[in-house]
Sequence to fold (795 residues):
Amino acid sequence: MTGEQITLDSLPIGRKAKVKFLTSDGPIRRRMLDLGLVSDTVVEALQKSPSGDPTAYHIRGAVIALRSEEAKKIMVEVN
Amino acid sequence: MGLTSESTGIGVLENKLTIVKSTPVDKVIALAGNPNVGKSTVFNSLTGLNQHTGNWPGKTVTNAQGRYRHKDKNFIMVDIPGTYSLMANSIEEEVARDFVCFGQPDATVVVTDATCLERNLNLVLQTLEITNKVVVCVNLIDEAERKKIKIDYSKLSKHLGVPVIPTNARSNKGLDKLMDAVYDISTKDTASHPIKITYDGIIEEAIEMVKPKIEEIAGEKVNSRWAALKLLDSDDTLLESLNNFLGFNLLDDEELSGLVDMAKKHLVDNGIGEEQLRDRIVTKLVKIAEEICRNVITFENKQYDHIDRKIDKILTSRIFGIPVMLAMLGVIFWITITGANYPSQMLSNFFSWIEERLTDFFAWAGTPEWVHGLLVLGVFRTVAWVVSVMLPPMAIFFPLFTLLEDLGYLPRVAFNLDNFFKKACAHGKQSLTMCMGFGCNAAGVIGCRIIDSPRERLIAVITNNFVPCNGRFPTLIAIITMFFVGNFIGFSQSVFSTLFLTGVILLGIVMTLLVSKLLSKTILKGLPSSFALELPPYRKPQIGRIIVRSIFDRTLFVLGRAVSVAIPAGLVIWIMANIHVEGQSLLSLCAGFLDPFAKLIGLDGYILMAFILGFPANEIVVPIIIMSYMSTTSMMELENLNQLKQLLLDNGWTWVTALCVMLFSLMHWPCSTTCLTIRKETQSWKWTLISILVPTLSGIVICFIVANLARLLALV
Fold:
């Protein structure tokens, strides 16, 4: 799946991907940008919570948990 | 839990920021930073003020102030809420931004986390856009060293154009240098030359179209370049604050508002709409931070957070995550219950010995009977109960809970439980405010500010009372010990007590979720909002600090509050029990009036009245019940729980009564401090009333069902 564009929530655990663009708008988009999720940012899916959602991601040196609703609005390219 | 002496008691009601300078030359220093970078530790180390610290984002929710002296100057340090950004996506960010922008501090210290510098630089850069009087404090350098993260501080300082001071605030490392740098920046006029952030050509052109006019209107009062950028960005909350600060509406100036429109059109003509403008601004800052970090940081160990990830794999795993969480809660309760037993007994013996001496003294002094009754049987006994029953569990529970907090475990709890809250259409951070509620519901209510969406914040506020605060814990423990685990002895007794207490807490959590869901489907309709929770690195807890902080900040303060309420309450109860109207005491008259209703929900009139009189503080509910019963039965010594149990049994208690008292304790109106805090936080009597009604009605309904089911099934 190299080079393929998917939404962040479908990124398998342990895989890395590069942010391409955000499909959210308004406050959610601002939040995501503040987290440093601008294009070309490398994101790694670390692990899911016990019930499968949210998922913890490695973003610019920090570990951030995002719900699948948010992660769905982030397009990434798997490398 | 976020309990400080400021946020536990009535102090929470006074958070309006007024800075009192002892001399006009005092320097005001703003302390900014991302959440969870040890900002509060820096603040405490400098000012000696006991701002409670904990390892989870969103601790400081209001501006705390403290003072220190360095060289020949006094400094007033204002600890503003930790934020990732000054773009004001939440109330905390607004508070932070408004202070940095309009509080006119003489210098701003931005505290950053050495282990996560790149992310932190975003806030540094945003601050530098507003002011050049900035000192960057890179904190937690010991953690960074341990993780083999090497940072070239002088290079970083060159890049940013402002002083950069590495510190490890926990061990006071680097704080002298930090104070020196703050001294220099705030007293000398030699301006630093911070990094210039230059945006895309089109944006720069648009800024230039607006900037001169702002300079003309507002003069030196605001940074015109920054204000121009914000006008283009149409940041409404900021404009409001800006206009408040200036005392007039910038955009009332027709020429300026015309220029802003023109500049916006220029942007749109070149394909930069509002959303794109924001994107480009943020992207620019993020890229600059990335670039700087590439130049100044070397990760000698690429797997620097390997251990944290390993721990997370267990603590938040599918199989172990929730069991481990419950087990930890259970262990804390078990240690609390077992450990509190003996000190409680000793205190109780000690107080009854004092009571005897006091009685002897009053007899010797020949004071009237009522003086002895009022002071010893009324006031002293109530206070003695509150101290001997409250102090030991609090002195054990608080440090243990603080330990979990300090380790960084609480955000993992939020991570584990988020899905439940999502299903209840609520916010995952509600589990953090729930944890704060364990300490004090008023603090929990204030903590709800970490939730951005107003709807979800209200849900968290209304349901916070379903978590028993420390005022209710000892009551629950005492009743469990008396009525539910009496058949067990020794170790198994404490184990069953623990299981029972954990069950009660779980019931509180289940109620929280159910009621949240119910609210989301009725008066607070809506979908879950966005959720982004940081899981900070685990940190070695500071045991010494934890003990000192939790004993002095929390335990003694909360106890002090309870005692100060217990004294007048003891007086009132004794008077009510001893003033007779038509052969009946005032107390039994009131209780008689409440009795029919109270019986319906498994209580009795005295118990219900104790809950009502316990409105100022839940701690005094049980002492009031005891005093009421004692005033109607023959006097007796109450030296241990067995005798207390006998007193309760004599007054018609059964296990159903005990269960209903526990349930009602878990679910009834919040105490007065919490109610006032809710009023203040929601700015609405309507939501305050709802916050009172929701738990109260839940309690009444559930107690009614339990009591009548037991009656129907002839269980009693």
